[in-house]
Specification:
This protein is an all-alpha fold and 95 residues long. It has four helices and no strands. 0% of the residues are buried.
């Protein structure tokens, strides 16, 4: 009888599957950039007064922006390292 898969194992397998292909990685990076820009615009123009009145929501807002920016940085770093690895592998095959 198979064991139940934990959420962590499922998330790890899903991340590996999504990050395996360059096009998928780049789409995730694009969507993250769009989401980050949308959150910035939303916070600057739409929610500006409300965030100034509620300091706790202001902290949550900036924590979310920081999370998205850090996630974007990690995706970009992973993509960069993966490109270097693919380049070295292709170079090794040509030798």
């Amino acid at each position: 009888m198979p064991k139940k898969m934990s959420w962590f194992s499922f998330a790890l397998m899903a991340a590996r599957a999504l990050l395996q292909f360059r096009e998928t990685r780049r789409k995730i990076i694009l969507y993250t950039i769009v989401a980050l820009l949308a959150v910035f615009v939303l916070g600057y123009w739409v929610l500006r007064g409300w965030l100034q009145d509620n300091p706790m929501w202001f902290i949550f807002y900036w924590a979310g922006c920081t999370f998205l920016a850090f996630f974007l940085f990690l995706l970009g770093l992973y993509d960069f390292l993966r490109i270097i690895k693919d380049y070295k592998d292709a170079r090794e095959r040509l030798r």
